[in-house]
Specification:
Blueprint: H1 24-27, E1 54-65, E2 68-79, E3 83-87, H2 94-100, E4 111-119, E5 122-123, H3 131-137, E6 138-141, H4 152-162, H5 169-179, H6 183-186, H7 199-212, E7 217-221, H8 229-242, E8 247-251, H9 255-261, E9 264-272, E10 278-287, H10 288-293, H11 298-304
Parallel strand pairs: 3-8, 3-9, 6-7, 7-8
Antiparallel strand pairs: 1-2, 1-4, 4-5, 9-10
Helix pairs in contact: 4-5, 4-7, 5-7, 7-8
This protein binds adenosine-5'-triphosphate.
Protein backbone atom coordinates (compact mmCIF):
# COMPACT_ATOMS: atom_id res chain seq x y z
CA UNK A 1 0.00 0.00 0.00
CA UNK A 2 1.41 3.34 -1.01
CA UNK A 3 1.73 5.63 1.98
CA UNK A 4 1.81 8.96 0.13
CA UNK A 5 -1.09 11.31 0.67
CA UNK A 6 -3.58 10.97 -2.16
CA UNK A 7 -4.96 13.81 -4.23
CA UNK A 8 -8.45 14.89 -3.29
CA UNK A 9 -10.01 14.32 -6.64
CA UNK A 10 -13.37 16.07 -6.26
CA UNK A 11 -13.65 18.40 -9.22
CA UNK A 12 -13.71 22.03 -8.19
CA UNK A 13 -17.24 23.34 -8.25
CA UNK A 14 -16.62 25.95 -5.57
CA UNK A 15 -18.39 29.20 -6.06
CA UNK A 16 -16.72 30.70 -3.01
CA UNK A 17 -13.38 32.40 -2.63
CA UNK A 18 -10.40 30.09 -2.87
CA UNK A 19 -8.68 29.25 0.38
CA UNK A 20 -5.01 29.90 1.00
CA UNK A 21 -3.12 26.86 -0.21
CA UNK A 22 -0.42 26.06 2.37
CA UNK A 23 -1.15 22.36 2.03
CA UNK A 24 -0.89 22.21 -1.71
CA UNK A 25 2.49 20.55 -1.55
CA UNK A 26 1.28 18.11 1.08
CA UNK A 27 -1.79 17.03 -0.81
CA UNK A 28 -0.70 17.64 -4.35
CA UNK A 29 0.10 14.05 -5.21
CA UNK A 30 0.25 13.13 -8.89
CA UNK A 31 -2.99 12.62 -10.76
CA UNK A 32 -3.93 9.30 -12.26
CA UNK A 33 -2.70 6.96 -9.60
CA UNK A 34 -4.59 3.77 -9.03
CA UNK A 35 -7.59 3.86 -6.75
CA UNK A 36 -6.33 0.93 -4.72
CA UNK A 37 -3.18 2.81 -3.78
CA UNK A 38 -5.22 5.50 -2.02
CA UNK A 39 -7.07 3.12 0.26
CA UNK A 40 -6.59 3.98 3.88
CA UNK A 41 -4.33 6.96 3.22
CA UNK A 42 -6.09 9.02 5.85
CA UNK A 43 -6.66 6.06 8.14
CA UNK A 44 -3.04 5.88 9.19
CA UNK A 45 -2.71 5.91 12.96
CA UNK A 46 -6.35 4.96 13.47
CA UNK A 47 -7.40 1.72 15.19
CA UNK A 48 -8.27 -1.39 13.21
CA UNK A 49 -11.85 -1.11 11.86
CA UNK A 50 -14.31 -2.78 14.20
CA UNK A 51 -18.04 -3.23 14.68
CA UNK A 52 -17.48 -4.59 18.18
CA UNK A 53 -19.06 -1.52 19.75
CA UNK A 54 -22.11 -0.78 17.61
CA UNK A 55 -23.91 2.57 17.65
CA UNK A 56 -26.61 1.91 15.06
CA UNK A 57 -28.36 -1.35 14.20
CA UNK A 58 -30.46 -0.69 11.11
CA UNK A 59 -32.79 -3.54 10.20
CA UNK A 60 -35.35 -4.15 7.47
CA UNK A 61 -35.42 -0.46 6.64
CA UNK A 62 -37.87 0.54 3.92
CA UNK A 63 -38.32 4.19 2.99
CA UNK A 64 -41.09 5.69 0.89
CA UNK A 65 -41.73 9.10 -0.59
CA UNK A 66 -45.52 9.03 -0.97
CA UNK A 67 -46.14 5.82 -2.96
CA UNK A 68 -42.59 5.47 -4.27
CA UNK A 69 -40.49 3.03 -2.31
CA UNK A 70 -37.10 4.73 -2.61
CA UNK A 71 -35.17 2.26 -0.42
CA UNK A 72 -35.79 -1.42 0.20
CA UNK A 73 -34.79 -3.68 3.01
CA UNK A 74 -31.58 -2.19 4.34
CA UNK A 75 -29.89 -3.93 7.26
CA UNK A 76 -26.51 -2.81 8.59
CA UNK A 77 -24.59 -2.06 11.76
CA UNK A 78 -22.50 1.06 12.29
CA UNK A 79 -19.66 1.00 14.81
CA UNK A 80 -18.75 3.63 17.37
CA UNK A 81 -15.97 6.04 16.37
CA UNK A 82 -15.82 4.45 12.94
CA UNK A 83 -16.02 6.42 9.72
CA UNK A 84 -18.66 4.71 7.60
CA UNK A 85 -18.97 5.71 3.95
CA UNK A 86 -22.09 5.24 1.86
CA UNK A 87 -21.36 5.05 -1.85
CA UNK A 88 -23.29 4.15 -4.97
CA UNK A 89 -24.71 5.63 -8.16
CA UNK A 90 -26.99 8.63 -8.18
CA UNK A 91 -30.51 7.92 -6.96
CA UNK A 92 -29.69 4.68 -5.11
CA UNK A 93 -30.90 6.15 -1.84
CA UNK A 94 -27.72 7.12 0.04
CA UNK A 95 -29.06 10.51 1.17
CA UNK A 96 -32.42 8.97 1.97
CA UNK A 97 -30.79 6.38 4.23
CA UNK A 98 -28.42 8.78 6.00
CA UNK A 99 -31.34 11.13 6.70
CA UNK A 100 -33.06 8.27 8.55
CA UNK A 101 -30.22 8.14 11.04
CA UNK A 102 -31.35 11.38 12.67
CA UNK A 103 -34.93 11.50 11.47
CA UNK A 104 -34.33 14.29 8.99
CA UNK A 105 -36.74 12.52 6.62
CA UNK A 106 -39.51 13.47 9.06
CA UNK A 107 -39.20 16.99 7.63
CA UNK A 108 -40.04 15.82 4.08
CA UNK A 109 -43.78 15.71 3.40
CA UNK A 110 -44.87 12.21 2.36
CA UNK A 111 -41.69 10.50 3.61
CA UNK A 112 -42.40 7.29 5.51
CA UNK A 113 -40.12 4.77 7.17
CA UNK A 114 -40.64 1.19 8.30
CA UNK A 115 -38.18 -1.14 9.93
CA UNK A 116 -35.86 -0.20 12.76
CA UNK A 117 -33.05 2.25 13.32
CA UNK A 118 -31.82 1.24 16.76
CA UNK A 119 -29.45 3.82 18.20
CA UNK A 120 -27.71 3.01 21.49
CA UNK A 121 -30.36 0.35 22.10
CA UNK A 122 -33.39 2.54 21.32
CA UNK A 123 -35.43 2.53 18.12
CA UNK A 124 -35.33 6.11 16.83
CA UNK A 125 -38.75 5.58 15.26
CA UNK A 126 -40.52 4.60 18.48
CA UNK A 127 -43.48 6.86 19.20
CA UNK A 128 -42.03 8.36 22.37
CA UNK A 129 -38.70 9.42 20.83
CA UNK A 130 -38.19 13.19 20.53
CA UNK A 131 -36.78 13.95 17.03
CA UNK A 132 -35.32 17.27 18.23
CA UNK A 133 -33.22 15.49 20.83
CA UNK A 134 -32.30 12.87 18.22
CA UNK A 135 -30.94 15.65 15.99
CA UNK A 136 -28.98 17.18 18.86
CA UNK A 137 -27.27 13.90 19.57
CA UNK A 138 -26.86 13.01 15.91
CA UNK A 139 -25.72 16.12 14.04
CA UNK A 140 -25.63 16.68 10.31
CA UNK A 141 -23.44 18.55 7.85
CA UNK A 142 -24.87 19.10 4.38
CA UNK A 143 -23.55 19.20 0.85
CA UNK A 144 -23.69 22.97 0.56
CA UNK A 145 -22.20 24.88 3.48
CA UNK A 146 -25.16 26.61 5.11
CA UNK A 147 -23.93 29.03 7.77
CA UNK A 148 -26.54 31.29 9.35
CA UNK A 149 -26.36 34.90 8.16
CA UNK A 150 -24.81 35.80 11.50
CA UNK A 151 -21.34 36.33 12.90
CA UNK A 152 -18.89 33.46 13.11
CA UNK A 153 -19.27 33.54 16.89
CA UNK A 154 -23.07 33.46 16.81
CA UNK A 155 -23.13 30.59 14.33
CA UNK A 156 -21.35 28.46 16.91
CA UNK A 157 -23.03 29.89 20.01
CA UNK A 158 -26.55 29.49 18.63
CA UNK A 159 -26.94 25.76 19.27
CA UNK A 160 -25.50 25.77 22.81
CA UNK A 161 -27.71 28.78 23.68
CA UNK A 162 -30.85 27.13 22.33
CA UNK A 163 -29.98 23.92 24.14
CA UNK A 164 -29.41 25.80 27.38
CA UNK A 165 -25.89 24.47 27.67
CA UNK A 166 -24.00 25.53 30.78
CA UNK A 167 -20.47 26.88 30.87
CA UNK A 168 -18.52 29.72 29.37
CA UNK A 169 -19.79 30.36 25.86
CA UNK A 170 -16.52 31.94 24.73
CA UNK A 171 -14.66 28.80 25.72
CA UNK A 172 -17.22 26.63 23.99
CA UNK A 173 -16.94 28.64 20.76
CA UNK A 174 -13.15 28.39 20.86
CA UNK A 175 -13.29 24.67 21.58
CA UNK A 176 -15.67 23.97 18.68
CA UNK A 177 -13.69 26.11 16.22
CA UNK A 178 -10.46 24.47 17.35
CA UNK A 179 -12.07 21.04 16.97
CA UNK A 180 -13.03 21.93 13.42
CA UNK A 181 -9.52 23.22 12.63
CA UNK A 182 -10.77 26.76 12.02
CA UNK A 183 -9.83 28.67 15.18
CA UNK A 184 -6.47 29.97 14.00
CA UNK A 185 -8.03 31.39 10.83
CA UNK A 186 -10.94 33.17 12.48
CA UNK A 187 -9.95 33.94 16.07
CA UNK A 188 -9.37 37.63 15.27
CA UNK A 189 -12.64 38.11 13.41
CA UNK A 190 -15.25 36.27 15.42
CA UNK A 191 -17.74 39.12 15.00
CA UNK A 192 -17.38 39.11 11.19
CA UNK A 193 -20.12 37.57 9.09
CA UNK A 194 -19.80 33.84 8.51
CA UNK A 195 -20.90 34.47 4.94
CA UNK A 196 -17.57 36.24 4.23
CA UNK A 197 -15.64 33.01 4.76
CA UNK A 198 -14.47 30.85 1.85
CA UNK A 199 -16.48 27.74 0.97
CA UNK A 200 -14.04 25.43 2.73
CA UNK A 201 -13.99 27.64 5.81
CA UNK A 202 -17.79 27.78 5.79
CA UNK A 203 -17.96 23.99 5.71
CA UNK A 204 -15.55 23.76 8.65
CA UNK A 205 -17.70 26.35 10.41
CA UNK A 206 -20.71 24.10 9.83
CA UNK A 207 -18.74 21.20 11.30
CA UNK A 208 -17.83 23.41 14.28
CA UNK A 209 -21.50 24.33 14.64
CA UNK A 210 -22.39 20.64 14.60
CA UNK A 211 -19.84 19.67 17.25
CA UNK A 212 -20.64 22.69 19.49
CA UNK A 213 -23.78 20.96 20.76
CA UNK A 214 -21.68 17.91 21.66
CA UNK A 215 -23.31 15.32 19.45
CA UNK A 216 -22.34 11.67 19.55
CA UNK A 217 -22.59 11.14 15.81
CA UNK A 218 -21.93 13.42 12.85
CA UNK A 219 -23.69 12.64 9.59
CA UNK A 220 -22.16 14.19 6.48
CA UNK A 221 -24.06 14.21 3.21
CA UNK A 222 -21.50 14.89 0.47
CA UNK A 223 -19.73 17.49 2.61
CA UNK A 224 -16.99 18.16 0.07
CA UNK A 225 -18.90 18.19 -3.19
CA UNK A 226 -18.99 21.99 -3.34
CA UNK A 227 -15.35 22.36 -2.35
CA UNK A 228 -12.09 22.53 -4.25
CA UNK A 229 -9.45 19.80 -3.76
CA UNK A 230 -7.50 21.74 -1.13
CA UNK A 231 -10.55 22.44 1.01
CA UNK A 232 -11.60 18.81 0.49
CA UNK A 233 -8.24 17.58 1.78
CA UNK A 234 -8.61 19.73 4.90
CA UNK A 235 -12.07 18.34 5.61
CA UNK A 236 -10.76 14.79 5.14
CA UNK A 237 -7.91 15.46 7.60
CA UNK A 238 -10.46 16.90 9.98
CA UNK A 239 -12.72 13.86 9.69
CA UNK A 240 -9.83 11.57 10.57
CA UNK A 241 -9.18 13.68 13.69
CA UNK A 242 -12.84 13.89 14.67
CA UNK A 243 -13.22 10.13 14.40
CA UNK A 244 -11.25 9.68 17.62
CA UNK A 245 -14.18 11.31 19.40
CA UNK A 246 -17.24 10.98 17.17
CA UNK A 247 -18.93 8.37 15.03
CA UNK A 248 -19.00 9.67 11.45
CA UNK A 249 -21.22 8.55 8.60
CA UNK A 250 -20.52 10.12 5.23
CA UNK A 251 -22.30 9.95 1.89
CA UNK A 252 -19.85 10.57 -0.90
CA UNK A 253 -19.79 10.37 -4.68
CA UNK A 254 -16.04 10.43 -4.52
CA UNK A 255 -14.88 6.84 -4.30
CA UNK A 256 -11.28 7.85 -3.72
CA UNK A 257 -12.49 9.82 -0.75
CA UNK A 258 -14.39 6.85 0.66
CA UNK A 259 -11.29 4.72 0.16
CA UNK A 260 -8.99 7.23 1.80
CA UNK A 261 -10.93 8.08 4.91
CA UNK A 262 -13.45 5.43 5.86
CA UNK A 263 -13.23 2.32 8.00
CA UNK A 264 -16.36 0.69 6.58
CA UNK A 265 -18.10 1.17 3.27
CA UNK A 266 -21.69 0.45 2.31
CA UNK A 267 -22.30 0.11 -1.42
CA UNK A 268 -25.85 0.82 -2.59
CA UNK A 269 -27.40 0.46 -5.98
CA UNK A 270 -30.87 0.83 -7.48
CA UNK A 271 -32.83 -2.14 -8.82
CA UNK A 272 -35.44 -1.46 -11.48
CA UNK A 273 -38.70 -3.38 -10.97
CA UNK A 274 -41.00 -4.73 -13.70
CA UNK A 275 -42.81 -1.38 -13.83
CA UNK A 276 -39.56 0.45 -14.45
CA UNK A 277 -39.47 1.96 -10.94
CA UNK A 278 -36.09 2.27 -9.22
CA UNK A 279 -35.62 1.08 -5.64
CA UNK A 280 -32.39 1.62 -3.76
CA UNK A 281 -30.85 -1.30 -1.90
CA UNK A 282 -27.70 -2.17 -0.03
CA UNK A 283 -25.54 -4.50 -2.08
CA UNK A 284 -22.53 -4.97 0.14
CA UNK A 285 -21.19 -3.70 3.43
CA UNK A 286 -17.74 -4.48 4.79
CA UNK A 287 -14.45 -2.93 5.76
CA UNK A 288 -13.37 -0.35 3.23
CA UNK A 289 -10.30 -2.41 2.48
CA UNK A 290 -12.42 -5.45 1.61
CA UNK A 291 -14.91 -3.47 -0.45
CA UNK A 292 -12.18 -1.78 -2.47
CA UNK A 293 -9.71 -4.62 -2.76
CA UNK A 294 -11.79 -7.78 -2.79
CA UNK A 295 -15.53 -7.10 -2.99
CA UNK A 296 -17.84 -10.09 -2.73
CA UNK A 297 -20.45 -8.87 -5.21
CA UNK A 298 -19.64 -8.27 -8.88
CA UNK A 299 -21.85 -5.14 -8.85
CA UNK A 300 -19.60 -3.61 -6.22
CA UNK A 301 -16.53 -4.42 -8.24
CA UNK A 302 -18.07 -2.99 -11.40
CA UNK A 303 -18.86 0.25 -9.60
CA UNK A 304 -15.52 0.53 -7.82
CA UNK A 305 -13.61 -0.08 -11.02
CA UNK A 306 -15.75 2.39 -12.94
CA UNK A 307 -17.47 -0.15 -15.21
CA UNK A 308 -20.86 0.91 -13.91
CA UNK A 309 -22.46 4.04 -12.45
N1 LIG B 1 -37.57 14.81 -1.03
C1 LIG B 1 -37.86 13.82 -1.87
N2 LIG B 1 -39.11 13.66 -2.33
C2 LIG B 1 -39.43 12.66 -3.20
N3 LIG B 1 -38.53 11.75 -3.66
C3 LIG B 1 -37.27 11.87 -3.22
C4 LIG B 1 -36.86 12.89 -2.31
N4 LIG B 1 -35.54 12.74 -2.06
C5 LIG B 1 -35.13 11.68 -2.79
N5 LIG B 1 -36.17 11.15 -3.48
C6 LIG B 1 -36.11 9.98 -4.36
O1 LIG B 1 -35.55 8.90 -3.65
C7 LIG B 1 -34.65 8.17 -4.47
C8 LIG B 1 -33.29 8.15 -3.80
O2 LIG B 1 -32.78 9.49 -3.79
P1 LIG B 1 -31.54 9.90 -2.92
O3 LIG B 1 -31.35 11.39 -3.08
O4 LIG B 1 -31.65 9.35 -1.56
O5 LIG B 1 -30.37 9.12 -3.68
P2 LIG B 1 -28.82 9.35 -3.64
O6 LIG B 1 -28.20 8.01 -3.81
O7 LIG B 1 -28.45 10.13 -2.44
O8 LIG B 1 -28.62 10.22 -4.94
P3 LIG B 1 -27.50 11.31 -5.29
O9 LIG B 1 -26.21 10.57 -5.23
O10 LIG B 1 -27.85 11.74 -6.68
O11 LIG B 1 -27.61 12.41 -4.29
C9 LIG B 1 -34.65 8.86 -5.83
O12 LIG B 1 -35.56 8.16 -6.65
C10 LIG B 1 -35.18 10.24 -5.54
O13 LIG B 1 -35.87 10.79 -6.62
Amino acid sequence: MNQDPAPASTPSTATHRQEPVPELAKHGAPEGRSLALAIGDRRRGRPTPSLGDPVFHISDLDIWYADHQAVRDVTLTIGRRQITAMIGPSGCGKSTVIRCLNRMNDLIPGARVTGKVVYQGENLYDADVDPIEVRRRIGMVFQKPNPFPKSIYDNIAYGPRVNGMQGNLDDLVEEALTGAALWEEVKDKLKASALALSGGQQQRLCIARAIAVRPEVILMDEPCSALDPIATARIEDLMAELASEFTIVIVTHNMQQAGRISDYTAFFTADVDDKGVRHGRLVEYDTTEKIFENPADPRTEDYITGRFG
